[in-house]
Input
Amino acid sequence: MDGEVIVRGPNVMRGYLGRPQDTAKTIVDGWLYTGDVGHLDADGYLTLVGRSKDMIIRGGENIYPKEIEDVLTADPCVLEAAVIGVPDDKWGEVVVAYVQPRPGTTVDPAALEALTARHLSGYKRPTSFLVVDALPKNAVGKIDKPSLRAAHAAALSSH
Output
C-alpha cells in the first residue's frame, strides 16, 4: 500500500529558516513529512512512486506521474517528460503528458500512445501528448510542474 514517507533522526533538518509555519506543517512531533509517496516491499526496501502534491485523481483512482514519466522517457526520442493532472468535468482530472525530444530527434505522439498502452492501465494513460522544445525548470533545475500547470490552464482559457 502506498503512503507518505515520513522520517526522523539526527540527520533530519530542524526546520525552514525563518519560516515557522512551514516548519510546523512539515515537521510534526519530530517526524519530517517528506511529501514523497512510496511503499515498502516484503524485504523492507522503500520504493518511491511519486510526490503527494503531484498526485492526479482520475475518477477516484490515484495516479502518480512518476510512473507515467518513466514509461515515456523509455522512448529513445524523449529526453524528459512531465505529467500533470488537468481538470475534467467527467473524471475530475485527466492525465496530460508534456515531452521534450532529445536533440536531433522527433517525438511521435502516436508512438507514445502505443508505448503507454503497452505499459500502463487505461486510467493512467495520458489523454494528450504535447511536444515542447523545453520543459520549465525551477531554481534548482527540477521540472517546474506548478508553472507547467499554470501555462496549460492559461492556454486552455485562451481558446
Summary: Residues 136 and 142 are 8 Å apart (CA to CA).
